[in-house]
Amino acid sequence: MDNLAWKIVEREKSLGRDLSMIRTEAGIAASGFVHIGSVSDSVRAYAVSLALKNLGYGSEMAQFADDMDGLRSVPAEIPQSFEKYLLQPVSLIPDPFKCHESYAVHMESMLLEALTKAGVETKLFRGYQVYDSGLLKQQIAAILARSKDVGLKIAETTGQKKFTETLPYFPLCRSCGRIYTTNALGFDQKTGRVHYVCKGVEIKKRWYQGCGYEGEADVSRAEGKLSWKVEWAARWAALDIRFEAYGKDLADSVKVNDWVCENILNTPPPYHVQYELFLDESKRKISKSRGVSVFTPDSWYRYATPQSLVLLLLKRIRGTRVVSPRLIPALMNELDRLAQQYYSGTGDPRRTGLYAYAHFLKPPNKRPNTIPYNLLVFLSSIAPEGKEKEFVVSRLKRYGYTVDEEALDRVGKAIEYFKSFGQVPGERFALEEAFKPAVAEVAEAVKNASVAEQLQSAVFEIARRHGLNPQQLFQQLYRILLGQDSGPRFAVFVVEDLGAQRAYEILKSAVA
RNA sequence: GGGCCCGUAGCUCAGCCAGGAUAGAGCACCGGGCUUUUAACCCGGGGGUCGUGGGUUCAAAUCCCGCCGGGCCCGCCA
I need a surface site. Which of A86, A118, A161, A366 has the fewest CB within 10 A? Predict the structure, then answer.
C-alpha cells in the first residue's frame, strides 16, 4: 500500500498537480447483490487513501454508486414480477424488500453496511444525485460536442461501433421510463439538450422494443446518463480523482476513458491498478446476478471478523483470487499471528504493517483475545446440539481462557462455521514407530483414568521413561485423537470430553 | 479472434516497475531451554536449480524474446 501511495504521489508531483487532496475512487454497482469483489474495490481504495494520508498528504475516498444504471436482469432472490422494471434506472425502481426508498438504495446500503463494519469511511456520491445536480454537465457537454471523435476512438479500441452512430449518452425515456432503449441522435450546445428516439435495444441476446417516444433530455439533470465508455472520464475530471483501480473485465473501458479524460477533458486520468477478478469455488467470475451462490461480505462476517476479510483483500492484490469459506480458518489464524507480532513490537515491519492496514491503521489498543479459531471449531464439533455456545464456553473456561465479549463473538462465529462447513481438515498422519510403545502405555493409563491431573502427570512420566520429549509425545497423541498437532489440555480433554473409554479405543487401534 | 494474470522454502506470501553483494518474512520442520502446554513462550538451526531455454549486461528473481504449466477476461452488455 505504502509503495503504491508513493508511486501515486510521484506521478502527481511530475504532473504538477495540487497535493493537498489526492482523492481515490471506488464504484459500487447498485443493480445486484453485494459480493466479495464489490467490497474489494472499496477496501483497497480506502487503504490507498490511508496510505496517502500516512505519507502526509490529504486524501479521501469517493464511493460512487452507479444507480442510474438500468436493471438488466432480475436476480434470483428478487420476485420475478420485477421483470416489469427491466431497463429502468435502479434508483427509480421500488425496493423489493420495502425497507429502503429504492432498489438502488437497498443494494447500496448492503455494501455500505458491510464497509462500515469493516471500518471503511467513505464519501458517498449517488449517480442519480450527481446527474440531477448538474455536477457533470460541463464534462458531458464537452464529450458530446466531440462525439464523432469519441465514437471512432471507442470503435478503434474496443471494436464497439455503436457510438459512431449514436451519442455515448443514454437518455431516460420520458414515456416508458427505460434507459437503454433510447438512441441519442443529437446534442444542442446552447440548450444543453440531447435529442433522442426510443427505438429499442438488444441486451443479453434479447430484444427490447422501444416505445417510439421522441423527445429531449437535459444533460444537467438526471434525465439520462453517459455510457460507461466515457462516464468514468467525466467523473474523474469533475471529482478530481487521482487513483482508481479496476477489475480486468473492464480493461477496455478504462482505456477509452483514459483517452477521453486526457484528450477531450484535458485532464490527466487517475493512476490505475488493474486487478484480477475474484472467482468462486467453481472458478468462475463472481457475478452479482447469480444470486444465492454468491458469497457475500455478510456471510463472511457470520463466520469470521471483518478484519480477516480485509486481510484477504489487502495481502495480495496481484493474481486471481478464489474466494471460498475454506479460507476463513487460515485467515483468522494469520490475523492472530500478525497480532502477536504487532503487539510484541518485534515483528517484521512488513507484517506488522499488514496488521495495521487490516485494521485500517486503527488497530485495537491492546492485543485482542485470540483464542485459536481452530480450537473453537473443534469444540463446536464435539458440542451437544442446541447447547453449543454453553458447551464451548464451559470448556474454554476449564482450559483456562478468559471468555470476554470478544471471545464470545468469536465462539459464535466458529459455531456457525462448523455448522456450515464442518471441521477444519487436518493432515493425514501415520504414527511413528518410535512412539508406539509410549503411546501404548498412555492408552493403558487412559483406560483407568478418572482424575485428569493424575493422567496429565502420567503422560509426562511415560515420556521421560521412554526418553521422549513430552512435547513430542503430546503432539503424537493430539494427532491420533484430533488429527491436529496440538489441542486442549490433554488429560482434561480425555477425561471430560472425549471419554476415557473412547480415547482408550482410539489409542489402542493406533498402536495395533 | 484479441488481451491479462500467476509460477520464489513444505504452506501463505514479500522482493520484480527504477538490475547489484550470502534471495527474505510468517507458519511448518529440526535442535535446545522452560521439571505438567492456553492450539504457550524464549533461543538457535536446516531448507529455495527464483517454472524453463536463450538474449542484453561487468552484474538478472528483477530487463527482452521463446517455451512449459496453472488460471482468467473481452468479442459490439454495462
Answer: A366
Ramachandran sector of residue A21 (left: φ over 0; alpha: ψ -120 to 50; beta: rest): beta
Q: Which nucleotides of B are covered by protein (CB under 7 A)?
A: 3-7, 12-18, 25-29, 31-42, 70-78
Q: How, if at all, do strands A271-275 and A193-198 pair?
A: unpaired
What is the 3 state secondary structure string of A87-111? CCEHHHCCCCCCCCCCHHHHHHHHH
Q: How far is CA A243 from CA A52, A67, A180, A229, A307, in A?
A: 11, 21, 29, 18, 23
Q: Write out pLDDT tens, residues A183-197.
A: 999 999 999 999 999
Q: What is the C-alpha separation between A85 and A346, in angstroms, rounded?
A: 58
pTM listed for this prediction: 0.90
Q: Sign of the C-alpha dihedral, residues A292, A120, A247, A300? A: negative
Nearest nt (C1') to A274 (CA)? B4
Question: Whose CA is closest to A61, among A131, A125, A127?
Answer: A125
Q: CB < 7 Å to strand B — which of 119-148 in chain A?
A: none
Q: Is the CB of A300 under 7 A from strand B?
A: no
Q: Is the CB of residue A56 inside 7 Å of nucleic acid strand B?
A: no
What DSSP element (H or E) covers A203?
Answer: strand A200-203
Contact between A118 and A43 under an 8 Å Cβ cutoff? The reply is yes
Contact A177, A88 (CB under 8 A): yes
ipTM for the complex? 0.90
